[in-house]
Amino acid sequence: MIKKIIIAGILMISPFAGKCQQDTTGGYKLVWADEFNTNGAPDPANWKFETGFVRNNEDQLYQTQNAFCRNGKLIIEARKVHQPNPDYVPNSTNWKQKREFINYTSSSINTSGLHNFQYGRFIMRGRISTDAGLWPAFWTLGIDKPWPSNGEIDIMEYYRQKLLANIACGTSVPYKAKWYSNTKALNTFKANWSKKFHIWRMDWDTEAISLYVDDFLLNRVALKDLVNQDGSQFNPFMQPHYILLNLAIGGDNGGDPSATKFPKRYEVDYVRVYQKN
């Protein structure tokens, strides 16, 4: 079904409008989406790239080449390589510089500065690889304050045989988060679960943040409990957030990837954001 819809005052023809009526239950209306229908690089009007070694002592170097759109899907591909690290510094204590070689590459993209949203229903349909050492995520960060005082919402995160649904705010210790986390073990799902596409959803309003996979509630936290614990009374979930999609490898949480055969893919069918009038 093809319908006409209006997004940000622009009349658009939507090939997917007839497929997502259930996404609009509760008075939600589509305000932004990427269906990844154009082959090639992710749309620069929607996505920016992170590059280099970025966070969590992860094994991969992020680069632009590992994310591309093909046949209506965004593909983030993790690859095993062996190449010199151009930032290598002998005897350095900096984790980004002390690695002589790059052993893995991948991509991380985000909507920072392009599309930020405060409240709404955020949906991603995707398929994740669950092999050892892989750490895919669909998440958001607040636009103001340093991490974690800006607020983090992990709508989908996977590593070490479990799905995670996490929300983090700041504490009195810089760069130390207070986490509200729930996990679900992979072996509690049906066989071949990771071979199929699934739908991750966040419903975020002035009262609470609720995180789902395939309509199963993984985590729910009231906004009143998410004020930064640093005396500022700042609530990082009462500000706009931007969206991130990435496939990390190893690092602090991802586990050992050495037994995994690469390349591995994180495939995204679409990302959609709905809000109420």
Strand content: over 45%
Corresponding CATH architecture: Sandwich
Structural class: mainly beta
Largest sheet: 10 strands, mixed
What would the average pLDDT be, to the nearest integer?
Answer: 93
Order of helices and strands: EEEEEEEEEEEEEEEEEEHE
CATH class: Mainly Beta
Task: Report the span from N to C terminus.
Answer: 24 Å
Q: Structurally, how many domains make up the residues?
A: 1
- What is the count of DSSP helices, taking H or I runs of 4+ residues? 1
Shape: globular
Helical content (DSSP H or I, runs of 4+): under 10%
What brief labels describe this structure?
single chain; 277 residues; mainly beta; Jelly Rolls; ten-stranded mixed sheet; seven-stranded antiparallel sheet; 1 helix; 19 strands; globular; disordered N terminus; ConA-like_dom_sf; Glycosyl_Hydrlase_16; Beta-glucanase-like
Explain this structure to me?
- The protein is an all-beta fold and 277 residues long.
- The protein has a single domain, classed as Sandwich (Jelly Rolls).
- It is built from one helix and 19 strands.
- Strands 3, 5, 6, 7, 8, 10, 15, 16, 17 and 19 form a ten-stranded mixed sheet that branches. It has a seven-stranded antiparallel sheet with strand order 4-9-18-11-12-13-14. The chain has a two-stranded antiparallel sheet with strand order 1-2.
- A hairpin with a 6-residue loop joins strand 13 (162-170) and strand 14 (177-185).
Question: Helices and strands in order, then pairings?
Answer:
Elements: E1 3-7, E2 10-14, E3 28-34, E4 48-50, E5 60-62, E6 67-70, E7 73-84, E8 101-106, E9 108-110, E10 120-127, E11 134-142, E12 152-159, E13 162-170, E14 177-185, E15 198-204, E16 208-213, E17 216-222, E18 241-249, H1 251-254, E19 264-276
Parallel strand pairs: 5-8
Antiparallel strand pairs: 1-2, 3-19, 4-9, 6-7, 7-8, 7-19, 9-18, 10-15, 10-19, 11-12, 11-18, 12-13, 13-14, 15-16, 16-17
